[in-house]
């Protein structure tokens, strides 16, 4: 025989919808948490966003000021090329800034006019830095020797080099010769080496 158990059916006929409520959170804790959160968001906004944007704006303003200054300087120097061309008409283009400051051009002209021209004709001359290269004609070998000694005694001359002294076919010291020489000048405020 088989025994069967008797089935039990639910006997409750009503539903209890009332929920047991937990104790409410304290409002002071919530306010404190929200205040800390607001401070953290404010600090992040200030240092990570606002300061970076203001630094970028400041850099753009500085760049704009520098560009305006550059444009003004370029406008002031716009006529440089015409001034340089005019300047190069009066002064040797071979002179660098250091060479131009080192030797006074007027002293070089004075040397040529007072010491060289009375003794010989100058067929060519070039001046670069502190070097004066000359080709003299119409001077005899004795005159070239005397000119060399006189130039060595000059206070603005550091040294004289005689490259060629050609008297042609004549062997006499009084025959006219062609003389090439380089004169090394003493820079202003300098001394002979």
Describe the structure.
The chain is an alpha+beta fold. 47% of the residues lie in helices and 20% in strands. It is built from five helices and four strands; from the N terminus they run ααααββαββ. It has helices spanning 27-76, 80-90, 97-102, 105-116, 141-152; strands spanning 121-128, 131-140, 157-166, 176-185. Strands 1-2-4-3 form a four-stranded antiparallel sheet. The longest helix has 50 residues, at 27-76. It is rod-shaped and about 160 Å long. The relative contact order is 0.09. Residues 97-101 and 189-193 have low confidence and may be disordered.
Poorly predicted runs: 97-101, 189-193
Mean pLDDT over the full residue set: 80
From the helix content, strand content and strand pairing, which structural class follows?
A: alpha+beta
Query: Radius of gyration in whole Å, from Cα?
Result: 50 Å
Largest sheet: 4 strands, antiparallel
Shape: rod-shaped
Number of helical stretches of at least 4 residues: 5
What is the rounded distance between the termini? 143 Å
What fraction strand?
Answer: 15-25%
In helices, the fraction of residues equals: 40-55%
